Amino acid sequence: MASTSTASRTSVLGPLNLPKREPRERRVPEHWWGYVLLAPAVILVLGLILYPVGYSFYLSLHSKHAYMPIETFVGFQNFEWIWEDEDFWTSIRLGGIYAFGSLGLQIVVGVAAALLLHQSFVGRGLVRALTLFPYMMPTIVVVILMRWIFNDSYGVAKYMIESSGLMARAPVFFDPDHVMLTMILASTWTFFPFVVIGVLARLQTIDTELYAAAKVDGAGVLRRFWHVTLPQIRGVLFVIVLLRFMFMFTKFDLIWLFAGAGGLGQSVRTLPIYTFVKSFGELQVGFGAALSVIMFLMLSAFALVYFRLFRRDEHA
């Protein structure tokens, strides 16, 4: 009976044309695409930065041989040994001398060169290109070149000093008493273009009306630099000082090539060199990892204090 009534209803009303339901499209939320695109960068950061840092913290709590599978948990004993190690404090002192000495000269030479290259003169483009040349040279080439320039027998520096009459006899630049100054000069020549690039880019964005107004007020060259140029490039110098100090304090290759070629030993053993010697020279990986952790914490503390001082100066 049910089938008969349904058939009669269909015959009276005609076929039922019900709309067909189309399958719903499952759309991926748009923010998920952002996660997908960021995933390769996040994986690289985790694999190349965070994991090595975390593993260094792990090794610093162990006594581990460099090549043999010998590993013993010692807690903070490595840090206690470091605190009592006189060579560690010597490496801190030498690293500070090298970092602050080279940084100061790089800032002075770089800012002076940027101010000069900001002026209009014939061949300015060529001179700007040549200024970047030292920064593009490989470190091994820089070391070979510097060993030729500062050679105590036939070096260019020896000839210029003695021929100019400044000294009757030029110093031995790679002597343990003078090698730190030699490395600072070599580092300054190699890395001052980094300062030039940043400062010169900022100089080109300074409004020329500021200099015109300063001239109207009777400001000379030095006063225009102090009251107009320096405040305008202060933000760039802040970043440059922070980056260059970290780079120079952790510099390894140039110092190692200088020390390795001359057998200078303790006179150039900065903290990165001392860490390498302990890790792979004396095969004390745990001790070396503790040194690297201390270096990491020192640079982090320097960055935090530096940012705080800069912000306080800005608000003042």
Order of helices and strands: HHEEHHHHHHHHHHHH
Globally, the shape reads globular
CATH class identity of the largest domain: Mainly Alpha
Mean pLDDT: 85
CATH level-two architecture of the largest domain: Orthogonal Bundle
- Fraction of residues in helix: over 70%
Strand count, sense and barrel status of the largest sheet are: 2 strands, antiparallel
Q: Whole-Å distance between the termini?
A: 95 Å
- CATH topology description of the largest domain: MetI-like fold
Low-confidence region ranges:
none
Number of helices: 14
Q: What order do the strands of the largest sheet run in, or round the barrel if closed?
A: 1-2
What gyration radius follows from the Cα positions, in whole Å? 32 Å
Range of strand content: under 5%
Can you give a write-up of this model?
The chain has helices spanning 2-13, 30-60, 77-83, 86-117, 124-131, 133-136, 139-149, 156-164, 179-203, 208-216, 221-249, 253-262, 271-281, 285-315, and strands at 62-64, 71-73. With 316 residues, the chain is mostly helical. It folds into 2 domains: 48-84 and 284-316, no CATH class; 87-283, MetI-like fold (Orthogonal Bundle), CATH 1.10.3720.10. Strands 1-2 form a two-stranded antiparallel ribbon. A hairpin with a 6-residue loop joins strand 1 and strand 2. The longest helix has 32 residues, at 86-117. The radius of gyration is 32 Å and the shape is globular.
